[in-house]
Amino acid sequence: MYHCQICTHEIEPFISFGRMPIANGFLMPDQFSQEYFYNLIVGFCPECKMVQLLEFVDREKMFHEQYAFFSSTSSFMARHFGMFAEKVIQGFLAKVRDPFVVEIGSNDGILLENFSKRNIRHLGIEPSANVAEAAIRKGVKSICAFFDENIARQIVSESGHADAIIAANVMCHIPYLHSVAKGIKLLLKSGGIFIFEDPYLGDIVEKVAYDQIYDEHAFYFSLQSIHYLFSQYDLEVIHTELYNVHGGSMRYYISHKGSHAPSSSVMTQIDKENMLGLHQRKTYELFRKSVEKSKDQLKQLLLNLKNEKRRVVGYAATSKSTTVTNYCGITPDLLEYMSDTTPIKQGKYSPGAHIPVRPYEEFKANYPDYALLFGWNHAEEIMAKENEFCDNSGKWIVYVPKVKIIG
Ligand code: SAH
Ligand code: TMP
Ligand code: ZN
To answer: Is the pTM here over 0.85, yes or no?
Structure first.
């Protein structure tokens, strides 16, 4: 029996992907025999409406000094975070004397560097030592720690309360959200603002983007579930915005209750969620059926291409690709290799499926017939720079929102 991490109500799973390895656990052949696996199962809480994993991986197994995801590999995201910072500064810090900004999950400093360059007092909380060091080298003040209420207390005693707390693609990574919410409550100045964004459940459901589901993503947020969590701490969602990053993300603006007037976006979004059925279990049953169909179609397509003796490679060894390769049974005989620009992944093998990860240069030097776009959330950025691949009769295989060939 499983219980909700947010409200303790009993929950039942609606989809199981079976045994899965760590999504970012790229490894060498001598590590294959000790590879760690867990059960990837997702459930919906009928009480607080939170969609969540039912089994969690220990955080130290995922976030450590060899963490494979460096945020700054995407120039598109760097621009996105530049605009995020600008909004925070113009909207919330312009009139504050000596403002203080804290970021949770600051990685290699992609967002905070926009504050450090302007000499705005800031602090990043980042548990993965290698990416935190990359941030420090850029001049971004960072501490290597997991954010929770104890760290929040420590920050208040050392640096005072925060005018803005920001977080991107990390809140959904943290199973102990009650401790995080208590930490926000403690750390946020009265009149301050907490702004965070994460992949949005509405987009995941609508686009059948099941590859957003993996060990690091403990939660799949909707406005309703976020409202439920923070209202327990007298914190209030005052505004929401949708962004076309990471396959569709929601940015939530949260303040101490009563300190900012809520905008109409909040009610509008709740209405949209009800129309989409995010508050109903049957929506997730339908989602499961669509996921199973997508899996069968992708596997069949790759088998057909193999029979036709076509060369197929994966483009971008994303964390999401681990769910796809393992769930769909994509083995090295169906996919020659995965190309990726991140040095720490190159020369290693993909988690579970053990497909070789090769430098991007190899892709450019000898184009395959087909590239399976695991980095579909970066499609705009990637396709813009791969005209030559298409000019060489290269074709893309995409699977979100539907399995199809482009080109
Ligand atoms: N904010 C960046 C990085 C997202 S990846 C971006 O949007 O690109 C998630 C990051 O959160 C990782 O760097 C991971 O080490 C970090 N993280 C995981 N758990 C955390 C926690 N409890 N507190 C702070 N950071 C955490
Ligand atoms: P993510 O989808 O988990 O954010 O991971 C992105 C991965 O994609 C990261 O390993 C870098 C890789 N990548 C490329 O190889 N080429 C690209 O052009 C982009 C944008 C990303
Ligand atoms: Zn619940």
So the answer is: yes
